[in-house]
Amino acid sequence: EAAILRANEVELPAKQAANEIVCGKRLSEALETGDEAVMRAALRTGRTFGAEHLDIFHRVQDEQQRLYKGMLSERLQEQLKGAIAKNDIQGLAAVFQVARRHAIGTLAVRT
Fold first, then answer.
1. Residue 7 binned pLDDT confidence (cut-offs 50, 70, 90)
2. Residue 86, class by beta-carbon neighbours within 10 Å (0-12 exposed, 13-18 middle, 19+ buried)?
3. Dihedral sign, Cα of residue 16, residue 19, residue 25, residue 28
4. Which of 39, 79, 98, 102 is most buried (most C-beta within 10 Å)?
5. pLDDT tens across 65-89, in order?
6. Considering the chain, what is the average pLDDT of its residues?
7. Are 102 and 72 a contacting pair, CB within 8 Å?
8. Long-range contact pairs involving 39-43 (C-beta distance under 8 Å, separation at least 24)
9. Percent of the chain residues topping a pLDDT of 90
């Protein structure tokens, strides 16, 4: 990785191949962790080094988005419960807007 960073201004096929190997390895490791934040960081690195065309990049991106939406849905559920308990119309509207923006279909509240 250090050699790739030192050759930042150089555009060579060998450098691109090295970028793909390093990014592919980092993305694979991130996918194995199952951690959304680790995947997000690996995707950022992949974008920086031009690895968006790799199959592993898209697999990690899909999994990271799935995990993100799951976490967001859970948090929205909590916010929705709080807004209902407080009769907070603005809170309800905010939950609705975020859910709609992120295409989160159904939020249910168990009472």
1. low
2. exposed
3. negative
4. 39
5. 999 999 999 999 999 999 999 999 9
6. 88
7. yes
8. 39/63, 39/64, 39/67, 40/64, 40/68
9. 68
